[in-house]
Specification:
Blueprint lengths: L1 H19 L16 H12 L2 H12 L5 H13 L4 H7 L3 H16 L5 H28 L7 H32 L5 H30 L15 H5 L1
Helix pairs in contact: 3-9, 4-7, 4-9, 6-8, 7-8, 8-9
Length: 238
């Protein structure tokens, strides 16, 4: 029902845009220096060879390693400890207004000459939330009872997620503001696309590695088989 409703909304809104939105027929001459796909890739290659851009790319490719496990694995571990998936999904609903408001507030601090200052200031707090999430996972089975989880547990989870969102969006908006600020206006679209792509990659590869490492780093015990080890997937299956 959820997917059907939003699918219908999507179809209706896009159809209305197609019917009522008119293209601007007065073509404005573009100042972009690129003429085709090959030119664009040559331009991207020339941008990425610049020492400052290369240093920045290395920074944003590795900046999110410290909190990749907390971001990618916490929700899965809470489900593993018995928290219903639908309850975690419901906790995401109050986050939506926060996610809309936060960029508006944070943009005031990233509009100056040094937008990355916000990025640097938010990073230690986001790293600390990794420890807080680890504590949350450890605490979860200790508050569980036959009827599920108490209300105060969900209140703590909601507050933790809300505060985490503040650090996450502070870093996200700061990096976007910096990318917009340093991009050459003549090739702004190409320049920003490159930096944003590297930024997205910098968030995705550590999360993938964190998820891959969950199984080998998880300590397992075989119940009722003292001589059997569960150290790897084959042994666990046996």
């Amino acid at each position: 029902d959820f997917l059907f409703f939003w699918g219908a909304v999507f179809l209706i809104t896009t159809t209305l845009v197609a019917l009522f939105k008119k293209e601007n027929k007065e073509l404005t001459p573009t100042k972009e220096e690129t003429k085709g796909i090959m030119d664009t890739y040559r331009l991207l290659f020339s941008i990425i060879k610049m020492p400052s851009v290369l240093t920045f790319c290395l920074l944003i490719l590795t900046a999110k390693v410290g909190f990749s496990a907390a971001d990618a694995v916490t929700g899965l571990k809470l489900v593993e400890e018995g928290v219903p998936k639908e309850h975690l999904a419901l906790l995401a609903v109050p986050m939506v207004p926060l996610q809309i408001i936060l960029p508006l507030i944070i943009s005031k601090y990233t509009a100056g000459p040094r937008p990355l200052n916000t990025f640097y200031k938010a990073m230690p707090f986001r790293l600390l939330f990794g420890l807080e999430f680890a504590f949350l996972v450890w605490w979860t089975p200790r508050v569980r009872h036959e009827g599920g989880f108490p209300i105060y547990y969900y209140a703590v989870v909601l507050l933790s997620y809300a505060l985490h969102q503040i650090t996450l969006y502070s870093m996200y908006v700061a990096i976007m503001a910096f990318n917009a600020k340093v991009s050459d206006p003549l090739i702004g679209g190409t320049y920003m696309t490159l930096l944003n792509t590297v930024s997205n990659l910098g968030g995705n590869w550590p999360a993938t590695v964190a998820l891959w490492l969950v199984d080998p780093l998880t300590v397992k015990e075989c119940a009722g088989a003292q001589e059997q080890t569960c150290g790897n997937a084959v042994a666990a299956e046996v």
